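User: Sequence recovery, please. Input:
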């Protein structure tokens, strides 16, 4: 869901912010209440499965065959090539969106399922690439998503509200493999996540006249994380990933969890299925910009070694 230019870690560069009367739009609520978003049960269940299968694979020791494949989020547990390896993992993310978006004292709560997003999805691109040589590597990903006509909750003062957004996320995470032994490998990661968000809120007349609020913000979150990968035999792979960042330098907090189960369908090719949750809580007190959202859903992709 989510190209920004160069900026310094911790910098928040505000773009255009405007407020103008609205000529009309569809309904939607007042969003200054910002409840905590619980981790989805599906994600917790999948994480338990990943942990259990990885523990089982580690106990199997040398008796389990190790594959040499990887992905942006799913690298192999052992490296056998001397040069750089490149792995591409195109995927589909059936995600929903919930949280609070606002600017200039106006905000809306959003709670959108995958079907709501797809209905008014103007475009999306998700491009993860992993580079690796020996124990060192780089996880990178570009996410672009453009949405329009998404309904929110305007509160008692407006008749409705619609949200449009243009989101760009660029993630660069160098990593080091600390336990390369078969059949389980563990990586530690540290890097950054660039966010570039343009949002427009169209409030329709109610008690107050209609108004249009739009804003653009850009920031970088420092991020640290861990990744575990296991070959559990008979062409099956499991993968678990988690990171946390922001720390008040960019956003107040950002975190991500990902778990997948994979099956090797050919040499250098692994089909993967899992769940991903990505949250961010950003607020600029100077202009009132708020982007406190969680994006989560099932993913289906394929890892290809180039």
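Assistant: Recovered sequence (306 residues):
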């Amino acid at each position: 869901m989510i190209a920004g230019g160069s900026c310094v870690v911790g910098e928040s560069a505000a773009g255009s912010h405007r407020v103008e009367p609205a000529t009309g739009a569809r309904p939607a609520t007042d969003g200054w209440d910002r409840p905590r978003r619980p981790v989805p049960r599906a994600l917790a269940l999948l994480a338990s499965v990943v942990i259990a299968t990885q523990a089982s694979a580690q106990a199997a020791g040398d008796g389990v065959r190790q594959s040499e494949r990887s992905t942006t989020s799913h690298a192999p547990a052992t490296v056998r090539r001397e040069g750089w390896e490149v792995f591409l993992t195109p995927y589909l993310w059936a995600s929903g969106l919930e949280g609070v978006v606002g600017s200039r004292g106006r905000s809306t709560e959003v709670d959108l399922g995958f079907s709501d997003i797809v209905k008014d999805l103007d475009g999306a691109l998700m491009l993860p690439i992993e580079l690796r040589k020996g124990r060192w590597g780089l996880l990178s990903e570009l996410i672009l998503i453009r949405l329009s006509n998404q309904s929110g909750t305007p509160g008692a003062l407006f008749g409705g509200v619609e949200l449009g957004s243009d989101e760009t996320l660029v993630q660069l995470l160098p990593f080091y493999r600390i336990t390369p032994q078969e059949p389980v490998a563990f990586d530690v990661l540290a890097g950054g996540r660039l966010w570039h968000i343009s949002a427009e809120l169209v409030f329709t007349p109610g008690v107050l006249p209609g108004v249009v609020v739009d804003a653009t913000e850009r920031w970088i979150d420092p991020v640290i994380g861990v990744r575990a990968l296991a070959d559990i035999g008979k062409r099956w792979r499991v993968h678990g990933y988690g990171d946390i960042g922001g720390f008040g330098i960019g956003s107040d907090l950002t975190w991500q969890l990902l778990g997948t189960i994979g099956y090797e369908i050919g040499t250098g090719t692994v089909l993967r299925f899992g769940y991903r949750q990505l949250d961010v809580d950003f607020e600029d007190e100077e202009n009132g910009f708020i982007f406190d959202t969680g994006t989560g859903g099932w993913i289906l992709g394929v890892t290809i070694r180039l």
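Residues 41-60 form the longest helix (20 residues).
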